[in-house]
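#data-curation
PF: Archiving a pair of folding outputs for the training set. Convention for this channel: one message per protein, sequence first, structure tokens after, nothing in between. First:
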Amino acid sequence: MHAFLVFLQQNPYILLFTVVGLSVWVGRWTVQGYGLGPVASAITIGCVVATWGAANGVEFTLDTFTKSLFYYLFMYGVGLRVGPSFINSLKGDGLKFVFLATLSSLLGLGIVVLGARWMALPVGAAGGILAGSQTMSAAIGSAEQAITSGVVALPPGSTAAGATAMIALSYGLTYIWGTVGIILICKYLPRWWRVDARQAAQDYEHEHGVPNVDDAGLSGYRPFDLRAYRVVHPDTVGQSIAQFRARFPQYQIENVERGKRLLGADPSLVLRHGDVVALGGSLVALTDHMGSIGPEVPDARALNIPLDQAEIVVTHRAAIGRTLQDFRTSPLAGQVQLTGIERGGVPLPMGLQTRLQRLDVLHFVGLRSAIDQATALLGPVARPSTATDLLTLSLGMLLGFGIGLVQVPAFGATVGLGNAGGLLVSGILVSSLVSRLRFFGNTPNAARNVLEDMGLIFFVAIVGVNAGAHLLSQLSGTLALQILGLGFVACTVPPFVVWAIGLHLFKINPAILMGGVAGARSHSGPAREAAKEIDSSVPWIGFPVAYAVSGILLTVFGYFAMVLAQ
């Protein structure tokens, strides 16, 4: 066994990928639907492996350059994800959720700082408790940067490695309740308040036309359709396609077959008796006026028309603030099918009263000509692509490092965002700019997820490995109980305060507020459980804005927790 540990010590990349692989595998384990997840598993397994090695006289150390690189990629990815939603949150009704998310984050930070100072916890405990109790693993990085940058003064006899180990230890001890606790609190808050969130969700669905997406998996209903008809009606024979469109604006002729030739759909083309036309429109429209052309025919050649799919970013002023219902009488009705809406990278339930915001991303499928019309009405289009604009990625990273170099005088010293904070701001700026300028710097969701998931898991795994050798010398029963108690309070108190203010002061629909509470803790798990609890997708409406704001604040607050807890 000693020889195997020495082998891992001599081959650090094998050690790293072993820890990451085990973390992903263990992170999939669940008990009654609850599990650690890959990130918490990474730091746990990293610490266990390193402690195991130290107990056998083998010390594992992974280089700090690799650790910092993965963390910086993660921070930039977070900025890309939350950018559009964060910008949108600074106005309108989103300000309510901005306030709630800010309040929740500040309460968590305040409780951790005051508790750490009162109990005189070791250096590093505050940053780890904040990261674990608020389930914000990224705060580990900002807390560690407070040590490596020299802002946090280490007491005599302590080392930076020991402080980093305390961050990892505190995070591991508080993360379990931080995850399970917020899920249970968010799920059962309406019951404890004697509020019928299920009925509130049904009322909202009925009022705003939001369907319950869990009612059925696959559905045979398709609001958009394409059918073929033979031209025999005398009122249609001899008309041009443009004249037909003027009579029936709800239809779109996409192709004309004459004999064995396909003629396309030029507006000046005159229809003749016996022609077969491919007609697109809404299902409702295609069942009306069925005799205006002639009988329906199963003509495969005429119907062999490529459909298009695209993501359109809402940027045109004429579309911002309008509800989906407002577009039912537009020329687009029946020509395209809206399959999804994303706000800040988070899917948003759709309803007739869903109001479009700037930088919303609309997913369309439909006739190519109609997709082109939609871009003129809504904003720039981006065809689905798996390619990543590495030039934009490089420029965005350089911009972030540049922002991180800026220092301003404060409290008798100079302070700045640092590399991590600069990259977070850079990601927000780039994603907001890209969404306005026709996706010039394409970063597909899959690529962004790789930046986030791989960056954070690898970073946390390295932190765990480097910290593990120092854990045995720091852990005691009293210290563990103090950390667990403070983490419990920091996790439990903020959601109750946010719920009370959101419900009684802001009068937010309880079903939406459940998602807002989850977003204020930057955790999608509670929103998912809330949606299951009340059998509705309405909680996801309150999630995106609070999620974007708290994700940024809690990430940065790891640094402030370390500084203020001195």
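PF: Second:
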Amino acid sequence: MDDGVENLAAHDDEAPHRPDPATEPGFDLGDAPAPAKPAAATGYQVLARKYRPTVFEDLVGQEAMVRTLRNAFETDRVAHAFMLTGVRGVGKTTTARILARALNYEKPGVDKPTIHMEDGPGIHCDAIMESRHVDVMEMDAASRTGIDDIREIIDSVRYLPVSARYKVYIIDEVHMLSKQAFNGLLKTLEEPPAHVKFIFATTEIRKVPVTVLSRCQRFDLRRLSVDELSGLLAKVSKQEHVEAEDAALKLIARAADGSARDSLSLLDRAIAHGENVVREADVRDMLGLADRARIFDLFDLLMKGDIGGALTELRAQYDVGADPAVVLSDLAELTHWLTRLKLVEGAADDVAMSETERRRGAEMAKALPIRVLARAWQMLLKGLTEVQASARPIAAAEMVLVRLAYVADGPGPEELLEQLKGSGGTGGPAPSRGAAPPSDGPRAQLRAVSSLRTEPRPAPMQAAPALVLSSIEDVLKLLAERREVKLKGILEAGVRVVSFEAGRIEISPLEGTPATVASELSDALSKATGARWLVSIARGAVAPAPTLREQAKSREEAAKDRAKEDPLVKAALALFPGAEIVDVREPGLELPQGEEIMPADPDDPGIDPDAFAAEYDNREPDA
């Protein structure tokens, strides 16, 4: 990596030295050629490169790091390795070059590292900032990740720098290095030669091994605020002689999401889009943003439950170029800001909002409870993912707004729970703010959460009286009515009922019965009755007892046996040889008025089979 270095290397590798120009014959600093400058660049240079900072004072929003470095340089406590981390576009690589320039700053009267470089570039500054200095080597770890690349650094650190004060190795995206490469760098990173400095930059600090982090002085470059970015954009616009509206610059700063490079790139686009004039309307059109005031209107319609108006407003924004995903993102951002207005003092002083927006936001935040804002936030985040993955984003966005409008002002789970508690667990609600009439149940409340809904709603049904189950047979009947076939079958044949009382059942599962039968039965009964049912598993030995199905079979056989003793049934069986009693039903139907069932006479000899047969043969055709 260091071509032309060996002629200056010491013969003794353990004590390297560099020739002293003052003692070498025929060597004059005045005769040394100045570093070659590249030919003037042709073509347009983008703003992100043209206005890249060259001194620490130009860095925006990194005052804490600059103060630490200033004190370190002034007290000669400069570390041998630095770790710069932060989101994309905050200036990690630029800061690394400025730091390398400060370490190697040389000009008449300056003979040590300094961060005070306002007097103009030194001998090495231009070459360092243009990434062409022989002693400041930049390596992209995303493309050079292996141990062989690190071995080149390890082999070259023992050689003195060619012309600068320090050899500086800048490794960008250092988290991309392999495990072997990190391990190979550890020893050199911990005890490097005095003439070597390392500067690492990464956006994924958590992927860097802690053994590397512990050997570096870490600086977290913070994300830039909207105010800082808009100030930077205004300064650049003025230097470029471009007329720019403040609202347009704030839109660009908000879209850049804390990145100075992204904001300058967007400004470049906006200047080209607006023909050297940056207007708010043009920026919205370029970014696919909706009008901020219309976002407030859309959110207001949703919170009122006006579904028709909300869908109409969304379509109107979509027709003028707004991206559905961006609209939902703006709604989520507005929800977050309104929540901060309710909880954080001074949140209304956000410079990114206009005076009208701050006043309107304060009114909305005052009217909306936290539970509504929190629920809207969750639904918008989930809906945003759906829109981004949908083949028809506008349709997905409309469905998200429908869901949001329907539950905007509905009662939360905690309110429904309180209503159930207040009604004694019978399903009837307790009186509360915005609740339905006392005759409505919680389901009716959810159907009538807003009086402002444009869709007509059916009249709520009267709540049914509480269901009372007095026996296990009632439980089986209820499960059959609710079509809980599987659970009914398990209860009949898979468990033994040890005890039963209102609200409590104790069972003993047979071998092979699912372990979840108790919880499933408890949930089913609680939902069906509106009251709490506790279903427990019997502990210890349980006396053998037939299952419900076995008991029903025994009762059926007993009923058949009793039926066989009936004189009429005997006559029928005698008349039809081979006939069997298949089922015995006791409907308990009332007889027509005037008819009675005469009690059986013990002395009655019974029905004569011959007489019964004669009567059967002489019956009417339709009998």
